[in-house]
Structure formats: structure tokens, C-alpha cells
Design brief:
- The chain is α+β, with helices and mostly antiparallel strands and 213 residues long.
- It has two domains: 17-123, Roll (2,3-Dihydroxybiphenyl 1,2-Dioxygenase, domain 1), CATH 3.10.180; 144-203, no CATH class.
- It is built from five helices and ten strands; from the N terminus they run E-H-E-E-E-E-H-E-E-E-H-H-E-E-H.
- It has helices at residues 23-32, 80-89, 144-157, 161-172, 186-198; strands at 17-20, 37-42, 48-53, 56-62, 72-76, 93-100, 105-111, 117-123, 175-176, 179-180.
- The strands form three sheets. A four-stranded mixed β-sheet has the order 1-4-3-2, with helices on one face. Strands 5-8-7-6 form a four-stranded mixed β-sheet, covered by helices on one side.
- A hairpin with a 2-residue loop joins strand 3 (48-53) and strand 4.
- Helix 3 crosses helix 5.
- The longest helix has 14 residues, at 144-157.
- It is elongated and about 75 Å long.
Length: 213
């Protein structure tokens, strides 16, 4: 028998499907409690729906006989901490509390009314062997408003100011195409824009060359 020949298969989208007892209750829970948006419904009456979380879509299908096979779906998000607080405030059942995991995610898990488990987390890049280092004190003087933003950002990310600076420096040393890497997700960058307004930072990226005291 001839062996099969491997071919290059591209897949641009994936739609995991959960089975539910009541499609309307599911739509309400996912949109009102979890922060999803309704993409579409199908059937008359409705028996199927698509729900979006950012650029990711999950499908829900109502079981005609009421039997449910529980599923588990995991999402990588920009800021798991913020989403976790929202889910707690909305009274969502938390299956596993948020925490840093050995597999490289800070994540948590919730349960929907049908017992499906949904995981939400963001990457923390903690995998790999420990890196032995020695820290030294470095005299640093920063522009007052920038220092205030840095303190808020470090608190937001659950880091010390020193660790936040280390992370930023290491990323700026890394070339990515015609630019350099950023340690921040798009969600964090949006938060930084709010911090800029909060602290009145109205100068651009290259303003440090023009700073005078």
C-alpha cells in the first residue's frame, strides 16, 4: 500500500462548539456575564449561536434531547487580571482562581450554567530553567510624570518598578522586523494611553532628547 503524502494544510479559523440546554440563557450569560458579544443566531426557533470574545468565536448548539456533553475551551487574552475582576463582579462561578502556572500562563477557569469549563489567561513567559543573576543598585533619575506612570504600570502588572524596567529594557534590546519588541500587550498599551492622560504626559517618544531642567 502506498504511503500517504504529507500536504500543506492551512487553517485560518477554529470554532469550538459547546452543547447547551437553553440557547437563549446561554446567549444572555455569555454576553451579560462573561463579556462576549453575539455574532449570529441560526434556526427558527434559535438553536445555534456564535459568540465573540475579541477576534475569537465560540459556537453554542442547543441539544434537542437535553443531554449535555461538558466541554472545556481555553482563551488567551490580553489581560486575564482585568477579565477575572469583571467575572467576579458579575457573579460568575470561578472553578479555579487566577494564578501563575508552570505552563507559561497566568490563568483561571469558570463554569457556565451548563457545566462547560472556560479558561482565560495571558502569557507570563516563565518557562525554562532559572537564570541566576546578581542585581546592583543603579542611580536613576526620571521625568516626574514618567516616573508616576511607571509606578502605576508596575502596580497594574503586579511587578516591582525594578522588574518592570528590566522587562522593558530586555524587550527594547530585541529586534523585530524594522522595529523593536514591546513587553506590552495591546490591552496594556491602551491602559498606558490612559495613564499618559492621567499624568499629563503630552510629549512624544523622542522627547527625552529635548528634556531640560
Amino acid at each position: 500500500m502506498e504511503s500517504s503524502v504529507a500536504t500543506s494544510i492551512e487553517c485560518s479559523q477554529l470554532f469550538p462548539t459547546i452543547r447547551v440546554k437553553d440557547i437563549h440563557a446561554t446567549i444572555e450569560f455569555y454576553t451579560q456575564k462573561l463579556g462576549f458579544t453575539l455574532r449570529f443566531t441560526w434556526g427558527e426557533p434559535t438553536v445555534y449561536a456564535g459568540l465573540d470574545l475579541g477576534k475569537t468565536t465560540i459556537h453554542a448548539a442547543q441539544q434537542a434531547d437535553g443531554s449535555i456533553e461538558k466541554a472545556e475551551v481555553n482563551f488567551v487574552v490580553g489581560d486575564a487580571n482585568a477579565l477575572y475582576k469583571m467575572h467576579q463582579a458579575n457573579g460568575v462561578t470561578i472553578s479555579f482562581p487566577i494564578g501563575d502556572r508552570e505552563y507559561g500562563l497566568r490563568d483561571y477557569q469558570v463554569a457556565d450554567p451548563d457545566g462547560n469549563h472556560l479558561g482565560f489567561g495571558h502569557y507570563i513567559y516563565n518557562q525554562g530553567p532559572p537564570v541566576k543573576i546578581e542585581r546592583v543598585d543603579v542611580p536613576v533619575r526620571l521625568e516626574k510624570r514618567l516616573a508616576a506612570l511607571l509606578a502605576d504600570l508596575a502596580e497594574h502588572k503586579g511587578m516591582s518598578i525594578s522588574s518592570c524596567l528590566e522587562e522593558t529594557l530586555l524587550h527594547t534590546f530585541e529586534r523585530v522586523g524594522d522595529s523593536v519588541a514591546s513587553p506590552h500587550t495591546f490591552t496594556t498599551l491602551d491602559y498606558i494611553e490612559k495613564l499618559k492622560k492621567k499624568h499629563g504626559i503630552d510629549y512624544d517618544t523622542h522627547a527625552s532628547y529635548r528634556f531640560v531642567e
